[in-house]
Amino acid sequence: MTADFDKCLLLYPLPDWEPIQQKLMGLSSLNPRIRDLQRQLVGYAEDIELDSAGRVLISPALRNFAGLTKSVVLVGQGSKFELWDREKWEAALERSAGFGDADLPPELEGFSL
Prior knowledge:
The protein is of the alpha+beta class and about 110 residues long. It is about 35% helix and about 15% strand.
């Protein structure tokens, strides 16, 4: 589990996280933007385990970073999950509601579901 720039938490299976961490730490920390990314993603990264009831304990540092309250949302994102405070998730959904065709990046041109 680690912190994301969107003020949510990212949960990766360890086999998916390890190559990401290795690649990040292989980049030059002389570049301030790369160093910020390393600090954010690797600096906050913690190994977590499920307890016997299938729950995880989230450290105070990660809870504070993401502003988690009692109501949270777990969002599947392919090989990872995002864990959001419910109010922040709803605000993020509202921001993306105005995402129209004119706002699409060129990489999504012609993309359909």
